[in-house]
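Escalation from tier 1.

The customer reports that the assembly of four entities below gives different structure tokens on two consecutive runs. Tier 1 could not reproduce it. I'm attaching the input and our single run for tier 2 to review.
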Amino acid sequence: MADTDRRKPGPRRALSEDAILEAALALLDVGGADAASIRRIAAAVGVAPNAVYTYFPDKGAVVRALVERLLGEVDHAVVDPGRPWQERIEALALDLRRRLVAHPGAVPLLLSGPMDGPAALALGELLLDALAEAGLDATAAARASYTLIVYVLGAIALEVADVPQPGPLAPEGERIAARRAAFAAVPAEAFPRTAAAADVMATYIGTEQYLWGLRRTLAGFVTPI
Amino acid sequence: MADTDRRKPGPRRALSEDAILEAALALLDVGGADAASIRRIAAAVGVAPNAVYTYFPDKGAVVRALVERLLGEVDHAVVDPGRPWQERIEALALDLRRRLVAHPGAVPLLLSGPMDGPAALALGELLLDALAEAGLDATAAARASYTLIVYVLGAIALEVADVPQPGPLAPEGERIAARRAAFAAVPAEAFPRTAAAADVMATYIGTEQYLWGLRRTLAGFVTPI
DNA sequence: ACCTGAACACCGTTCAAGT
DNA sequence: ACCTGAACACCGTTCAAGT
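Tier 1 run:
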């Protein structure tokens, strides 16, 4: 009757790069890394599967754009120029972890290709700034910044990989409790040190461990070797 | 005629867990992470797709067994008890990197689930041994060992992810040269420090950077903080 | 116990066609 | 320029059946 509703009801039919990426992220969030198929994205956005190819040349391009968007969301304002360099890096690392862990299904995609987009470069600049202030020369600052990127992304990837089922991550405390239960089964005869440290190992995927490793890594950058 | 050749010619028809894992690894090596499909594994081993389910309940189980096998191949003998703890950890980290980078298609599978098999635990014990010798108490040794696992796996994952096309990795020098060419395009106005450090960044995926980060991380473990 | 044929519900991508 | 229908060559997994 009213000619304002064009076709079928359901998801808004504003097909665009943004709508596609939003739909992809929503699918990732509920179904995990494999849930963001071209066909499901198209269905979510109310369009035939091949319509997606009007905006992206292939699935890889969708993934790359999504990764770029996630990295671009990191709040550069958490880096307060007035604070010491360690605190700035810590704030950045915590913000990145918080944002990525909120989309566990997207994390494997981050590690699936080179991170060479503008958002990644911008984060790299922030790190290089902080490390220059720490007194590192240009070469050491570059090596240190990559060491940090490796640590941060590695920790986030392992944290997410620890949870088998898709969907939002349970609170940290619950995940640690589940790990503690699992580590109770480690045979102490074969792995004595592991069995003895089981309670600490249960906390590997938590914030305390994340900061412990980060701070030790930062300390290593400014220690005579 | 001769009744020694039972059926068709082609791949030996010794179906078994081992044959399946070997076929999967071979497929991974030539076609990348997505190439090890159940159907292709079955074809390579000369069997109907669903025959694989006699040995593994699902594809995830195949992947887990393959990961366990790869981690189990790490040569514990590279850890010479007579050498200082840093050297032992370095040897282990280099051996693991060498073995995993030889199968780039398998690396994404490593990060796709928890590493809680016996081979992973055995490597963890080696780390805990070395870190205890470094003077760390049980808790610090555990935190440090996980920091190392994160660093090593993160570095290997990013190194492999840097190469888009499947198949064996080109020699390190070639990959670095390709990165150098790519970094030449970074706009110096927007990313001044990145552009200035482009030559170092080209070497991020190399052995020198791997050892730099590893040694700094180790140094951070024994620095007063 | 071990394997097969056939089927189911999926994939990504291409091509010709329609507006 | 943007979207669709139909098709192609794939997936993982299940089920009933055969030996």
